[in-house]
Design brief:
With 219 residues, the protein is of the alpha+beta class. The chain is built from two helices and eight strands. Strands 1, 2, 3, 4, 5, 6, 7 and 8 form an eight-stranded mixed beta sheet that branches. Bound molecules: calcium ion (CA) (2 copies).
């Protein structure tokens, strides 16, 4: 091979080789970008799946500043205060129900009744900043995109790393009543159900009081 031909040959080989390497890098970059996009999409999809629901008792809205969305709002309901049967848990039923099959009149089944809060003026003004006695209680079912949630009784602030959704006071049925009711957190800025101020005495809750004894109380 004459010298000029040899140089040309080498140059061409070098260029081809370089182009091939550059192409491989280009393909690798596209590959990484595709994988990153896929991972981002998967992360977005996972975030949409992660989350918890909770009931905000006493309110019709959720906490939008935390990105928490409202699933529905409605009425807090439970068993009649002076009856021992029925459920002991509280339910939050939608404001606008859709009815299944039913037979008019009472047919001997379990009962679901609207809830009212009872509290004398002194306690009521201290806890809720207004008179709440005999007012009917609304509720909201909220969905947070956080991985877990907990209601902490006996605290006014969250522990580090947690986000406050709402605060309130624990309420339940009175010990001398026949009906039991879950301990729940009733929002200290509670709203009222419209036209629910009457003394209905159906499902009733009252603020819970800590009794010192087995629970160590401060001196
Ligand atoms: Ca009432
Ligand atoms: Ca009452």
């Amino acid at each position: 091979m004459r010298p000029i031909a040899k140089v040309l040959y080498l140059w061409i080989v070098y260029c081809l080789s370089y182009a091939e390497m550059d192409q491989r890098r280009f393909v690798a970059e596209i590959d990484i970008e595709t994988k990153m996009n896929n991972l981002e999409n998967e992360l977005t999809a996972l975030k949409a799946l992660v989350g918890h629901t909770y009931i905000r008792w006493g309110r019709t809205i959720c906490q939008p500043v935390n990105g928490t969305e409202l699933l529905y709002s409605g009425y807090m309901v439970g068993d009649k205060w002076d009856q021992s049967g029925g459920g002991s848990n509280n339910l939050c039923i939608p404001e606008v129900p859709t009815w299944g099959q039913y037979v008019d009149g009472y047919n001997g089944g379990a009962e679901i009744r609207g809830t009212e809060i009872e509290s004398d003026a002194t306690v009521s003004n201290l806890l809720f900043g207004k008179a709440v006695d005999n007012h009917d209680v609304p509720c909201a079912v909220c969905r947070s995109n956080r991985a877990s949630h907990v209601m902490i009784p006996g605290r006014t602030t969250c522990y580090p790393g947690w986000t406050e959704e709402y605060r309130g006071y624990v309420v339940a049925s009175k010990p001398t009543w026949a009906s039991n009711s879950d301990y729940i957190c009733l929002d200290s800025m509670m709203e009222f159900v419209a036209h629910g101020a009457g003394n209905d005495n159906e499902h009733v809750v009252r603020p819970a009081e800590v009794r010192c004894g087995s629970i160590p109380c401060p001196p």
